[in-house]
Amino acid sequence: MIATKKISTAYLEQEIMTLNPVQLLIKAYDAGIAACNRRDESKTSTVLVELIDSLNFDYADIANSLFRLYEYCLREVKRGNFEVTIKILKELRDTWIQVQDNVQTEMLQTSSL
After folding, report:
1. DSSP for 7-35, written as a single string
2. CATH number reported for the structural domain that contains residue 90 in this entry
3. Is residue 48 part of a domain?
4. 86 by DSSP, 3-state: which?
5. Domain range holding 72?
6. CB 3.0 to 4.6 Å from 29: which of 16, 41, 50, 93, for a disulfide?
């Protein structure tokens, strides 16, 4: 059983190491949504703090907006209001999936020229 867990952990680590930044962000949203669904304050807060830490303030407008959203989510989770946090994380996740799809479409169009 321990060997199986080690293999599973190694596989997950390898998967994460091969993801691009947008895919990593989507994974983080997935983890946050899953933690909210379990009403796990600690794990949800950890994900939100990681999302805050990943912000690039060279792009101040979007980073500041996301920072305020993530902080709001942290406050709501501390209050036990997971529903609003789930809604926000799902909307952000969907937006990044659209970004990823658009980038892939553009890359395909560019490579076919």
Report:
1. HHHHHHHHHHHT--HHHHHHHHHHHHHHH
2. 1.20.120.340
3. yes
4. helix
5. 20-102
6. 93
